[in-house]
Amino acid sequence: MSGGVRQLRGGTRSALSLNAALVYLFFYAPILLLIFYSFSDDDLVGRWGGFTLDWYRAFGRNDEVQSALSVSIRVALISTVVSVVLGTMAALALERYRFRGNRIFDALLYLPVIVPDVTMAVMMLLFFTWSIDVVNTSFGLSLGKGISTVALSHIAFSISFVSIVVRARLAGMTQTLEEAAQDLYASQWQAFRHVTLPLIMPGVIGGGLLALTLSLDDVVITQFAAGPGSTTLPVYVFGLIRRGVSPLINAVSVVMLAASVLLVLLSLLAQRARGGSVT
Amino acid sequence: MTAVQEQPKQLDETGDVVTPLLELANEKNKRRRGLLLALPAYIYIVLFFALPLIIVVVYSFATRTRTGGTDLSGWNIEAYEKLGEPIVRDILFRSLWLALITTVICLVVAYPFAYFLATRSPTVRNIMLVFVMIPFWSNFLVRNYAWRVLLGNDGPVSQLTEALGLGQTTILFTPTAVVLGLVYGFLPFMILPLYASIERLDWSLIEAGRDLGASGFQTFRKVTLPLSMPGIIAGCILVFVPSLGAYVTPEILGGAKTTLLGSYIVTQFLTARNWPVGASVSTVLMIVMLVAALTYFRSGGKNL
After folding, report:
1. In angstroms, what CA-CA distances link B75 with A56, A173, B55, B59, B259?
2. CA-to-CA distance for B36 and B41, rounded, in angstroms?
3. Which of A110-114, B71-75, B142-146 is the least confident region?
4. Where does the pLDDT of residue B2 fall: very low under 50, low under 70, confident under 90, or very high at 90 and above?
């Protein structure tokens, strides 16, 4: 717009550039050093002892890491699929329809985003302890916490994030195309399947990737919702870190970082299709 | 549904008089469809979120039995009274203090950054934003672990300070390390809303300020700063709130003497087995977050 003021003056300009450079250094130096040291052939973390891939081989051979990884992936896939379906439906309902209790639903759907991790974790612990107890005594079962309770807790917070992302997409859209489809005798379902869904797809994909990232990232809630045999990779790594640093953790961390970066790139591609801003 | 869809053919000929009726039926139909669409997520959130939330509040009024169990029969506020005890109060104030410092540092660093970002060409801006988003999306645990490696006794920072003759770096397991980790984790939460509000500033107002003879600083203080206030409020809440409830960062970078609220709550459930106290601290934390969130929405912040 008015280019005049957007041009910064000499002194301010160099101070701001320096600040920006330092921010990027702050963001990336730790990550890059971690990647660098994960290739170091030295038992001490943070010391260079020549190039090696041994820690990555150890990552591949470690059974505990592998089973934690498989739990993580299973939980992430289940929670993403369920929360994308439920979250998208909720987004459509809230953006396109007025119904009894829509305001309460709207507020309720925002809560999981606001409530801190630790509180959510406590909620899940108390809820599953209580509900499993009730179910077991009334049906004479011996259920316990496990992968399913972890997935249930992940869905509980992911639905909200998915619906927020999809709603952002829906909010900027006019309904003329859907109306046109219906005027041309498309059924409700056909109009949704061939018009609405393709239009909101970037939002759905973006929401799904967010759900996937959140599920793969979570430590605290998972720790409280998990039972024996349902340790996810972050929970396992968190336990290792509390006992101390090790080159193996470096390698596992780099693999986890690579996964997140891949997800960011995918989401940016989805955003590009959306043609909107980056958030 | 079918009944309503068949109606238009008959009603079209009759004209205006019945149209409101059709609209009414249509409206009713739309409402029902909206509810049906919302229902699965609605039920899910009520069952797996609202109900657990109520259970936490109920537990916060319960009594701990001598064996570490929880007695739900007699309601009392003993767990809340415990919040006034010196140990818990110290933890509360320490958490508030560290969250405040984190927020201030983030604001001071992020504001000039966001301002700089907003003055770049659209292409440069997008590239710079992508490089803010990458750490934002990266695994939080891993990012904290990176600092643990960096600040460790034999770590790169220590090697550097030793080479410079400054001795070993000893900030790991101190509050300083925790603040560093929190700033590292939450800085993007400050940058993004600040950028969003500065970017959509009406720059002609700034120009007008300068034309009317105000100095650069005066223009900033009287024009830019007030106009970017929604972004500042949003950013501060988005940093302060998760910092206050942080658990992973203090566990990894903090020491035994820097117990914060998050760790305290977890300890009450996993080791101390005092569920009512854990539940009451969680409830208080939740109320703080709700107040912050309401302030945020009141201030007009909706995006992000």
Report:
1. 54, 51, 13, 9, 29
2. 10
3. B71-75
4. very low
Q: Label residue A76 by pLDDT band (50, 70, 90).
A: very high
Domains and their CATH numbers in chain A: 38-274 (1.10.3720.10)
CA distance B172 to chain A (A): 13
| Residue B301: per-residue pLDDT | 53
Q: Using an 8 Å Cβ cutoff, are B265 and B161 in contact? A: no
Hey, which of A21-35, A254-268, B195-209 has the most confident mean pLDDT? A21-35
Q: Would the CB atoms of B155 and A45 count as touching at under 8 Å?
A: yes
Residue A54 pLDDT greater than 50, yes or no? yes
* Over residues A180-207, mean pLDDT: 86
| pLDDT, tens digit (0-9, with 9 covering 90-100), for B46-97 | 999 999 999 999 999 998 887 777 788 778 888 898 888 998 899 999 999 9
Is the per-residue pLDDT at B3 higher than 60? no
Size of interface A-B (CB pairs under 8 A): 285
User: What does residue B63 show for φ and ψ, rounded to 5 degrees?
Assistant: -120, 140
Q: How distant is the Cα of A126 from the closest Cα of chain B, in angstroms?
A: 7
Q: Where are the alpha helices (DSSP H) in A97-146?
A: 102-114, 117-139
CB contact under 8 A, B45 and A98: no
| A119/B286 CB distance under 8 A | yes
Beta-carbon separation of B210 and A5 below 8 A: yes
Q: Which residues of A touch B168 (CB under 8 A)?
A: none
Using DSSP's 3-state secondary structure scheme, residue A100 falls into coil
CB contact (8 A) between residue A159 and residue B41: yes
Q: Is the ipTM of this complex over 0.85?
A: yes
Which tokens sit at A252? 């596992």
Long-range contact set of residues B155-162: C-beta below 8 Å, sequence gap at least 24 = B155/A45, B155/A46, B156/A33, B156/A46, B159/A46, B159/A47
Q: What is the DSSP string of A250-266?
A: HHHHHHHHHHHHHHHHH
Query: How many residues belong to chain A?
Result: 279
Q: How far is B173 from chain A (nearest CA, A)?
A: 12
The band of A160, judged by pLDDT with boundaries at 50, 70 and 90, is very high
Of A150, A136, A130, A132, the closest CA to residue A221 belongs to A150
Closest in B38, B203, B303 to A105, CB measured: B38
Residues of A in contact with B187 (CB under 8 A): 23, 26-27
Structure tokens at B36: 């049906």
Which of B137, B189, B200 is the mutation pick for testing A, counting most A CBs within 10 A?
Answer: B137
Specify the DSSP element, H or E, that contains B63: strand B63-64
CB contact under 8 Å between B154 and A46, yes or no, is yes
DSSP structure string for B217-261: HHHIIIIIHHHTHHHHHHHHHHHHHHHHT--HHHHHH--GGG--H
Tell me how far apart the alpha carbons of residues B263 and B214 are, in angstroms, rounded to a whole number: 50
Residue type at A145? Answer: K
**Placement of tokens 């509000």 in the chain:** B197
Contact A261 B115 (CB under 8 A): no
